[in-house]
Amino acid sequence: MEAVQAHPAGVTAASTLALGRPAPSGPHTYAALDLGTNNCRLLIARPERRSRRRNTDFLRVIDAFSRIVRLGEGLGRAGRISEAAIERTIVALDVCRAKMETRGVTRARLVATQACRGAANGDEFVARVRERTGLELEVIDRETEARFAARGCGSLADPHASSVLLFDIGGGSTELVWLTRPSAPGEHRDLHSWTSLELGVVTLAEHFGGRAVDARTFTAMKNHALEALEHFVEATAEIRRCSRFHLLGTSGTVTTLAGVHLGLERYDRWRVDGLWMTDAEATRAIDRLRAMDFDERVANGCIGPQRADLVLAGCAIFEAIREVFPAARTRIADRGLREGMLLELMEADGALA
Predict the structure, then answer these.
(1) Transmembrane region positions (predicted)?
(2) Which residues does the chain have with pLDDT short of 50?
(3) Dihedral over alpha carbons 256, 261, 264, 267 (to 10 degrees)
(4) For 293-318, b where at least 16 C-beta lie within 10 A, e where not — what string?
(5) Residue in 343, 76, 86 with CA at minimum distance from that of residue 210
(6) 213 CB contacts (<8 Å, ≥6 apart)?
(7) CATH code where residue 209 lies
(8) Which residues contact 118 (CB under 8 A, 6 or more apart)?
(9) Are residues 74 and 172 in the same domain?
(10) What is the pLDDT of residue 326?
(11) 308 found inside a domain
(12) What's the pLDDT at 183?
């Protein structure tokens, strides 16, 4: 869990996949697959530019897929990916493969993160996926995961803030990235320091329990997260924080909190992505979630049965981050690894300015 000085690196040819298709006469169609400890998510897109005055780029999304597969279920106890989790995940990956074929994907990056990094049978799982689906998963390291997250949602940072703390609360790990103002106009923010904690919503909920979370259990989860954060807090203590310093959060925890804050009956990405929440609003949303019992969380349209036993663990991690990195506001990003992968692939091909 060591904080590391790092700067973004380019995508290498060996890390990209052509899916066996010939180079097209027109623009490539790109895909990014993120297989995490909890979710399997796919995004298919083509490059598209806005007005040069905006000095930005964005993705024209063609198709997307997301399914909670709980690949890391029981991993903390057994040290291995279970047979049931493997089968659930392979079914989801088959859907992804079919979508990529249907949409004519010519360039893709398919990555797996903490569950495969930490499992004793991670390599065996990757081999079974290759055999059953034809997909070649790439198990990425923590630094690469942090870089993709920063590239995917860094554009949401306040351009006038000299430093921003990005955090990505995942199923089996949590990435924190300290972003500083770019060294030249028009460039991406500099990735000053980062860390990856072996702590996520699945591992925390399995250790402390996620269905019935009373005040004592919630405090224990938060304290566990605070201990994990200690080293990074020390490593970043001297970094300047201006009056516009803020948090930038990505992942299901913060997007769920945003939906609860807005009172949405059903989750709406277009209302959540880019939303600013004040510190007081974040506290009220967490308190509202903590006041719900398990059945009420299941019934909530922004949570549902697949996240109901995980969301409070995520809130505990978020509370710990807010305590040691106090900020007046948090920006919510419903984007991250997949968008970062797509943008890097497109930039490597010269498809983006």
Answers:
(1) none
(2) 1-18, 20, 22, 51-56
(3) -20
(4) eeeebbebebbbeebbbbbbbbbbbb
(5) 76
(6) 221, 290, 312, 313
(7) 3.30.420.150
(8) 72, 75, 79, 172, 198
(9) no
(10) 96
(11) yes
(12) 65
Q: Which two tokens stand for residue 193?
A: 């320091």
Q: Are residues 160 and 247 in the same domain?
A: yes
pLDDT of the residue at 192: 79
Picking from 163, 165, 143, 81, the residue whose alpha carbon sits closest to that of residue 118 is 81
Full residue range of the structural domain in which residue 99 is found:
4-142+342-348
Residue 149 resides in a domain: no
pTM above 0.85, yes or no: yes
With vertex at residue 296, the alpha carbon angle to CA 293 and CA 301, rounded to the nearest 5 degrees, is: 140
DSSP strands (E only) in the chain: 4-5, 30-35, 39-49, 57-68, 107-112, 138-139, 163-169, 174-180, 190-197, 246-250, 276-278, 329-333
Say whether both 102 and 164 belong to one domain. Answer: no
Decide if 205 is inside a domain.
yes
Q: How many domains does the chain have?
A: 2
